[in-house]
Amino acid sequence: MGGVLGDMFADKWYNDDPIPADESGYLFGYNRLIGGVQIEQKRGYKGGCTGDSLYSVFYPQCYNDTYITADPPFLYFNETTGKDVYDLTDATFLQQVEDSKFGDRTLLDDASGDYYGSVRESFEYNYTIEGYRVFLDLAKGTTFNLKKISQLREMRWLDRQTRDIIIKFTFYNGNFRRFAFAQVAFKFDQGGQFIRFDPESAAVQHLVRGGTSVLTASIKMEPYIVPEDFLRLGLEIVFMIWTFIYITNFVRTLIVAAVTFKLRDHLNSWMILDLGNYLCFVMYFVMRVNLMRYVVNNMVEVPTNSYQPVFQIAAAMTRTQLKVNFVNCLLCIFRFFKFYQFQPRLQIVNKTLAASTVNLYHFCVIFFVIFLGFAVIGNIMFGGQYRDFHTIPNAMQALFETLSAGNFDLGPTVGNSLLTYPNNAVMGIIFFVSWIFICAMVLLNVFVAILMDSYAAAQEEGEAQAKRVGLDKPQAVGDDIGKAIGIMSRTLDPRSWKYTEANLYHALSHLDKTMLDPEDKSFYFKKEKERLEEEKDKITERLEELEILAEDPQEQLFHPAWNQKSVTMAELARTLPKVSKTFRSNNPDENTMEAVWQTQLYFAPEDDTYVEEDEERDIVTLREKLTALIKENAALRNALAEPS
User: Fold this and answer.
1) Is 50 exceeded by the pLDDT of residue 502?
2) Are 161 and 63 spatial neighbours (Cβ–Cβ below 8 Å)?
3) Which of 272, 313, 315, 376 has the fewest C-beta atoms lying within 10 Å of its C-beta?
């Protein structure tokens, strides 16, 4: 017995001195094994090969990945003992157990043989773990466990129906007062494939059938026993109360909005993000309390001579809690963008993302189609040879690493230091070059260009907003911090009003909220006044236009075309006789059309513009003809709408 198991069940020191029983079971000198090691096996069903294959006679026995299962026995209440017990005499249960047995039953069922008391149960289905198991007891020593492993080998505990082998064990380290649960899983597929564990490719490897995986978790069965633990408990309680205050305010805001029929004003992306964040906090608190209650109520007595599933269950609860924390921390990071928009410099990032949303959406569609296409090509061409392209998800991860991690050499990625792939040398080079050119050189630069344009637009908008309030550029975070420090210093020092006139104004404004702060210079008011006057002129002009247009709604369609059409007067004069009989007898010339244009048809200037009487009469006549034409002839509208 070598490797990790050899270290755990060692009975001699490195100098061949015997290891006492009270010092056995240590891994790396400090981590002591709890109970022993449990080895579990998941087995698949076997049967005839499906389909009418011509080779079924040559290969009559097939195996699948469906695990062998059996229903647990019926649970009933025993009035004598006052406890719930399993009915181990149930006929259905006994039949399923009998069907799940394997191995040489003649030797295994022989009560006088060596196999009956040691490994017989390992060849029978165990419904508590939903599989088959072997327990290597630390207390029985190395010799006994080596004999048990040898007997399992003799009886072929592993065969073609074996699908998974899972090794589970737990250590305790008194230096850290923590337990460590470890699980190593070996998977076997129908092709006999087995892949050694590779920590650098663990994320890809677990997706491949036949790959191995390692899972570890740290567990604290005594969460609060030293002063540092109670300090952490106090901080956890404070954090919980603080979070629930925020949640209460959030729920109250939604209730008030719903009662006042203003809930729609609060329904936005930020509200959904806040809701998800608060739900994750609640889930975390519930899981944390359940985990603490479980570990406190299920203390393990050591030493023990059996496998303790308490550590496995606690490890699973810890992993679930960490997953919720991962999502929660991610939502907290996104929520920071909500607060960035209140600072002019920080909100540039928000505006950049908002301005680039539409372009990024279309870019992502194109990128995903190309990305998925290359992943499918890689899976088809190299999936049968290289693990990283064995499945489409594996291929997508391998290709994404070439873009995000800068690993542009696909050779090491697929396990070959050369850029030529066995049996697909030319195709491999074409695949590599086309992927790097299209995605790494073209699409990534397009992505950067989209963000750069949006950032430039957001920066210009921020500078424009600053100028509207009289600043040359948006205020930096340091300026806001300086103002906050100044306000705090004035608030904390009640005598500060005596020193300067400005401080006196600050003190008075603190008492009288209507008093203006002396820092609000008149320059800002003048700038705002000018801006409002400009907006007032635009609004007044637009109101006058709307009043005129409202008098005759049928003529509203003509006005935008007349004022916005970029055509020459000569072109318009030549077009009118072609589309209307009204102008065929009296063709307008270019000068007349120019005069009509200058008077803007409906909105003639109010200033005293000199117009000859004959020319004015022609303009009025032409205006009447054009007005009649707009009402009865749609062809002119189409002509005016055509590109010049």
Assistant:
1) yes
2) yes
3) 272
- Beta strand 212-219 with 31-33 is unpaired
pLDDT the model gives residue 235: 94
What per-residue confidence (pLDDT) applies to 568?
62
Angle at 404 between CA 402 and CA 409, to 5 degrees: 20
Model confidence at 557, pLDDT cuts 50, 70, 90, reads very low
Q: Is residue 138 a contact partner of residue 5, using CB atoms and an 8 Å limit?
A: no
Identity of the amino acid at 506: H
Task: List the alpha helices (DSSP H) in 405-443.
Answer: 410-413, 425-435
* For range 339-343, the mean pLDDT: 83
Whether 582 has a pLDDT exceeding 90, the answer reads: no
Cβ–Cβ under 8 Å, residues 356 and 450: yes
Residues forming a β-bridge with 443 = none
**High-pLDDT (> 90) share of the chain, %:** 24
Give the pLDDT score at 417: 44
- 55: amino acid identity, one letter: Y
User: For the chain, how far is it from start to end, CA to CA, in angstroms?
Assistant: 90
Query: What are the Cα distances from residue 484, in Å, to 253, 413, 479, 490?
Result: 28, 52, 9, 10
DSSP labels, 480-541: HHHHHHHHHHHHH-TTGGGT-HHHHHHHHHHH-TTSPPTTS-HHHHHHHHHHHHHHHHHHHH
pLDDT given at position 413: 45
Angle at 223 between CA 217 and CA 224, to 5 degrees: 165
Q: Are 558 and 641 in contact (CB under 8 A)?
A: no
Q: Which residues contact 555 (CB under 8 A, 6 or more apart)?
A: 549, 602, 627, 630, 631
Q: Mean of the pLDDT values across residues 291-300?
A: 91
Is the Cβ–Cβ distance between 165 and 211 less than 8 Å? Answer: no
Non-local (6+) Cβ contacts of 573 within 8 A are: 587, 588, 589, 590, 592, 593
Q: What is the pLDDT of residue 206?
A: 52
* Dihedral, CA of residue 375, residue 376, residue 380 and residue 384, to nearest 10: 50
Total-model pTM: 0.67
DSSP one-letter string for 1-45? --HHHHHHT--B-TTSPBPPGGG-SEETTTEEESSEEEEEEEEEE
| Mean per-residue pLDDT of the chain | 78
- From the number of C-beta atoms within 10 Å of its C-beta (0-12, 13-18, 19+), residue 602 rates as middle
Question: Using the 8-state DSSP alphabet, how is residue 131 labeled?
Answer: B
Spell 482-499 as b/e; 16+ CB within 10 A means b: eeeeeeeebeeeeebbee
